[in-house]
Specification:
It contains 16 helices and no strands. The chain is mainly α and 340 residues long. It has a domain of 157 residues. InterPro entries: TPR-like_helical_dom_sf.
């Protein structure tokens, strides 16, 4: 009887769970009113795409130009990037000419990662189109299925089906976990599951420590086998700071878990990474790492470190940008230990 009462109480608590999305980011937060890309090219590309709405080439070029501007810090270009990429996807839904479905699906993750559900139906439809390819290899199919499952869970949450959404998250994590039990060498899957685990650890209090430990485990495996990550996922040409961001997130997660010695090792790994481009985001990340190293005991075990910084939209820009300034309002700092 008591177990039943406790279970009912837990269910009621979960049903009342509210996930608050962070406030939207503005371009000024990243650019400080600087022009980090050639924005004057964009109107002509939009005009060409609007003049030929049935031209896949015109939609693709306009969409990709706005996407690149967004990822360099001009996040006010995101809606336009989505608009033209969606047009391109509807013209080529199975990516027979350009890889628009994969590009749009991953780009829409920038929204869902911060609980922005305005385009969640489109995101799910895009992943459905990717999964319709009968020639997908099993690992790629798993990745697309995982992203779709995460989006579906968020959609259920947005419809008020909180318990169902949490069940979907658990089921997705179990599916990916079983795959990794059979394919521990799949570093891309470790990366995806680590991302999911640490993101959800930061926003869902239920199972937070379990997800934190899982995220640490998967990201540690990723870092220890970095060269086994798919070339596109670790491309410095596409994302000059991608490894810096992943090591930083791992170190922050370790510090949140109270694993001080291992956190220290990962912060030092971040600082000493060889052959990293000298970018503004990396310099900021290094400054935070130095701050944490000087104050490890003060921050150890703090839930406020979750999700690990840089996260959400900031994390996307941090991976790709060269000159952007990363907002730090979501970076947890003790007031008495603020960055200089």
């Amino acid at each position: 009887m008591r177990r039943g009462i406790l279970a009912a109480g837990a269910a009621a608590s979960l049903a009342c769970l509210t996930l608050d999305p962070p406030p939207p980011r503005s371009a000024a937060e990243f650019t400080a009113s600087r022009e980090l890309v050639e924005l004057d090219r964009l109107p002509a590309l939009r005009a060409a795409a609007d003049a030929e709405p049935e031209s896949l080439r015109a939609q693709w070029q306009a969409g990709m130009a706005h996407l690149r501007a967004c990822l360099q810090g001009h996040v006010d270009q995101r809606d336009l990037a989505e608009h033209y990429l969606e047009r391109a996807w509807r013209l080529d839904p199975h990516s027979q000419q350009v890889p628009v479905a994969r590009t749009l699906g991953r780009f829409l993750n920038m929204r869902s990662a911060v609980l922005d559900l305005d385009r969640i139906d489109l995101q799910i439809a895009v992943y459905d189109s990717l999964l319709a390819d009968p020639e997908l290899d099993a690992a790629t199919r798993l990745q697309f299925s995982g992203f779709k499952a995460a989006a579906e869970a968020l959609r259920r949450y947005g419809r008020g089906q909180t318990l169902g959404a949490l069940h979907d998250v658990d089921a997705m994590e179990d599916l990916l976990g079983r795959w990794l039990d059979e394919h521990p060498e799949d570093i891309d899957a470790h990366t995806m599951l680590g991302n999911f685990a640490l993101t959800f650890a930061g926003v869902i209090p239920v199972g937070q420590r379990r997800r934190l430990q899982a995220g640490v485990r998967h990201f540690s495996t990723q870092q220890d086998h970095w060269q086994q990550l798919s070339p596109r996922a670790r491309s410095v040409a596409m994302a000059p700071n991608v490894r810096s961001v992943f090591v930083m997130q791992l170190a922050e997660a370790l510090l949140a878990a109270g694993e001080i010695d291992e956190a220290e090792r990962r912060y030092r790994q971040l600082i000493e990474l060889p052959e990293q481009p000298d970018t503004a985001p990396r310099r900021q990340i290094l400054a935070v790492a130095e701050h944490r190293l000087a104050n490890l005991d003060a921050y150890a075990g703090a839930d406020e470190l979750l999700p690990p910084w840089p996260a959400g939209v900031t994390g996307c820009v941090a991976c790709h940008a060269r000159e952007a300034t990363l907002p730090t309002d979501d970076l947890w700092l003790l007031p008495e230990l603020a960055l200089p």
